[in-house]
User: Which sequence fits this backbone?
């Protein structure tokens, strides 16, 4: 009798544990993680492979049915970054666009388009969002994390490269730091420090809209922020000094697809 009572108590406790809202602790991004590993190379995307994958549709379905407000803060931010990047891929495929995201919903003659980032195709927790709304109304004001500008990928060649893995709350800080270093130190066509000319070349990511506010609001503050990701040396010293000119690099809005990447290599 005692044994059966003990077993019953253990069973009841286990049932109560499994009934707890596990989604409050994390969201499973493993499907998106595998898709990114399989279909993203050097930041370039195989859009056709995502379009053909039922696993991608299933992942979007999971995003649509989930309310991330129950998650811990780091998990929430990872969720929204992944959602933004996943729905950007879906936007490109939904419009069968293979040249530039800016061709989507653009103005033609007297017909004024509302652009790609306003289209409410991103469903999360049974609510529909535009990509711009996710970034400007949720991610930036709620999390106040400048490194998101190196993680949100707008499907252009001059965007930060898309990671070949999904973001997770447990590794978010390391992933965002890594994204910053990759973008700031390994994309010289966008970001580089010319010590001899006392000139800092920066991506237009730093001046789109009011993004400079996220990095301190002035070019000197941006320099100090960028310096954090440079190793000790003359480049970092110049960035920290504030005594430099800024030149913004031309932004290439060509689609960040593997196909376009091959065309660039062949030209």
Assistant:
């Amino acid at each position: 009798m005692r044994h059966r009572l003990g077993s019953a108590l253990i069973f009841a406790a286990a049932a109560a544990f499994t009934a707890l809202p596990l989604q409050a602790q994390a969201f499973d991004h493993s499907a998106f993680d595998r898709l990114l590993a399989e279909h993203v190379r050097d930041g370039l995307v195989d859009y056709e492979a995502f379009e053909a994958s039922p696993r991608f549709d299933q992942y979007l379905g999971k995003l649509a049915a989930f309310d991330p407000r129950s998650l811990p803060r780091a998990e929430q931010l990872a969720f929204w970054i992944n959602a933004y990047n996943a729905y950007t891929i879906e936007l490109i495929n939904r419009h069968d666009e293979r040249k530039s995201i800016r061709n989507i919903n653009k103005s033609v003659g007297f017909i004024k388009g509302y652009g790609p980032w306003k289209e409410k195709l991103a469903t999360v927790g049974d609510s529909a969002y535009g990509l711009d709304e996710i970034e400007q109304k949720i991610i930036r004001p709620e999390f106040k994390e400048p490194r998101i500008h190196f993680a949100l990928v707008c499907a252009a060649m001059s965007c930060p490269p898309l990671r070949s893995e999904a973001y997770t709350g447990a590794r978010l800080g390391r992933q965002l730091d890594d994204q910053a270093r990759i973008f700031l130190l390994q994309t010289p066509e966008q970001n580089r420090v010319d010590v001899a000319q006392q000139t800092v070349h920066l991506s237009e990511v730093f001046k789109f809209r009011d993004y400079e506010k996220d990095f301190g609001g002035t070019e000197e503050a941006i320099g100090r922020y960028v310096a954090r990701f440079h190793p000790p040396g003359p480049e970092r010293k110049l960035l920290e000094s504030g005594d430099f000119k800024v030149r913004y690099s031309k932004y290439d809005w060509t689609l960040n697809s593997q196909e376009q990447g091959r065309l660039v290599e062949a030209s």
Confidence is low (pLDDT under 50) at residues 1-23.
